[in-house]
Design brief:
single chain; mainly beta; 8-stranded antiparallel beta sheet; 2 helices
């Protein structure tokens, strides 16, 4: 057989007399592979793109070389399927409030995302400092002060903005002192909060920034994209521009929505102090636009920039920096594995790892996210963290190495970023199909599915029997009661469940 695959559903039938060599790399959009009729009945492609539809056709053939003959008439077997993707949810956290002692070294951001500020300055180490609990950029030598973070090192941070499936929000308090800032050419004055940048220097890289400074009498706040660095006015192209904000205290917020690559810019201003203690509360929307020029580019660097001439009286201050951050959802699950449960001590014979899946509430009940945790032997609880789930209703599915796959009775309300709970032990009706067994007053997940085929049956008994005959011990799947030995006690548990035809029950 010749299996042909692509992601555009455009196929050219193979030509008789032309052998086709294998090209198994479907990650570039197309592939083909010759499969012997006696080979395994499955073939796996790896490293595919998420959320992408792939199409497949199967052509049978006989002969070889110039005598090869493909079956192309009639109905060619075909199928298509879409890969699922890791969805990403974000919250917005205070990355730094600069609330620390005056210092010429900015130091680290706040826990838990402790990142080290890097500084590029004209008069090291005095041009960039912490002053009165704010970051101050100044200098009497013409140049550019740039402080930046490699925020892309945060696990799960969407440095490629378009990969996010929730809004991304940046916010900051910001003031530059010039009455008429002229921009980012040499000897100009200009200020920028860089949302994302592809490189860590000012003279190269692409990305997005909020900027103030341009030629002309109106000093607008601009959401701009930049190409090839941030050290010249010509590098910036406006996406949103509005207002007249020179020498004012500004609270600013940017919202990016990956659905449509839409950007919104919000600015509140005051002449006496920052209008918002938390700039995420900035309320005045000054513009809305769509741009995807660099949203698919890796932009791991976030920073603050002051472009200036020689005046000793001018400066730029920043405070209260908020940035997108991965949002974890906690699900505390209480469950008891039947075979591990020691009724005499009211404990499990051992702690063990369980995988929890959150599945959509409607057919085909696709997996949205998964997490592993250890079920405690005393509390019977495990804490599962999900980074890729949105607020909604989901079935909870539990899988353990030698227990029966078990689902929650109904879809459960899960709140993104919140703490959620589910207890399988309180009632038989906590499981779909009432598929739990009562042991010592507690409802337990059936044990004995050693081969994880969704049924406790003779195939599991044979596995356990063989391992028992070989005196198997340790962490093995045939140890049904968790005592680290495979013996008659494991066979009995499995035989009893097999005799009542225990099967997984799912929607």
């Amino acid at each position: 057989y010749l299996l042909v695959a692509n992601n555009n559903n455009v196929f050219t039938p193979p030509s008789d007399g032309v052998p086709y060599s294998d090209d198994i790399n479907l990650s570039d959009g197309s592939a083909r592979v010759n499969i012997s009729y006696s080979a395994a009945n499955t073939y796996t492609f790896n490293s595919l793109f998420t959320n992408t539809n792939y199409y497949f056709r199967m052509y049978s053939y006989n002969g070889s070389g110039t005598q090869i003959n493909y079956k192309t008439d009639g109905t060619v077997p075909f199928v298509n399927s879409m890969t699922t993707g890791t969805t990403m949810n974000t919250t917005t956290v205070l990355l730094d409030n600069f609330n620390r002692a005056n210092n010429s070294i900015l130091g680290n951001t706040l826990a838990p995302e402790i990142l080290t500020w890097q500084e590029s300055e004209t008069q090291s180490p005095t041009s960039i400092s912490i002053s009165a609990n704010k970051t101050k950029l100044a200098g009497t030598t013409a140049g550019r002060e740039f402080a930046y973070l490699d925020i892309g090192t945060i696990s799960g941070y969407p440095s490629q903005f378009s990969t996010a499936t929730a809004q991304l929000i940046w916010a900051i308090n910001f003031k530059q002192s010039r009455a008429d800032p002229s921009g980012f050419d040499n000897n100009n004055y200009g200020a920028a909060f860089i949302l994302g940048k592809s490189t860590l220097d000012v003279s190269s890289g692409n990305g997005y920034a909020i900027v103030i400074g341009q030629s002309g009498s109106t000093d607008a706040i601009r959401l701009a994209k930049f190409t090839g660095g941030v050290n010249a006015n010509s590098r910036f192209t406006n996406i949103i521009t509005n207002g007249d904000y020179a020498n004012q205290y500004l609270s600013m917020k940017v919202v990016y929505d990956p659905a449509g690559n839409n950007w919104s810019l919000y600015v509140d201003s005051s002449s006496t102090g920052f209008p918002q203690a938390d700039p995420r509360n900035t309320a005045s929307q000054i513009g809305f636009a769509s741009d995807n020029t660099y949203t698919g580019t890796n932009l791991p660097y976030l920073g603050i920039l002051w472009n200036h001439a020689t005046s000793a009286n001018d400066s730029l201050i920043f405070d209260d920096l908020y940035a997108p951050s991965p949002s974890s959802t906690t699900l505390s699950i209480t469950s008891i594995i039947e075979g591990f449960y020691n009724t005499s001590s009211n404990k499990l014979n051992m702690k063990d790892t369980v995988t929890a899946y959150l599945r959509n509430s409607s057919s085909p009940f696709a997996v949205v996210d998964s997490s592993k945790s250890i079920i405690d032997s005393i509390t019977f609880q495990g804490t599962f963290l999900f980074n890729n789930v949105s607020t909604g209703n989901y079935y909870i599915e539990l899988r353990h190495r030698n227990s029966l796959e078990t689902w929650s009775k109904l879809p459960q309300a899960i709140t993104n970023g919140g703490i959620n709970n589910y207890n399988f032990t309180t009632s038989q009706t906590q499981a779909f199909g009432d598929n739990l067994v009562l042991v010592n007053g507690k409802y337990c997940i059936y044990s004995g599915d050693a081969n994880q085929d969704g049924a406790v049956d003779i195939s599991d008994i044979i596995l356990i029997y063989n391992d028992a005959g070989n005196f198997a011990s340790g962490y093995v799947k045939t140890d049904i009661n968790g005592d680290s030995f495979v013996d008659l006690s494991d066979e009995i548990i499995t035989f009893n469940n097999s005799s009542i035809f225990v099967l997984k029950i799912t929607p």
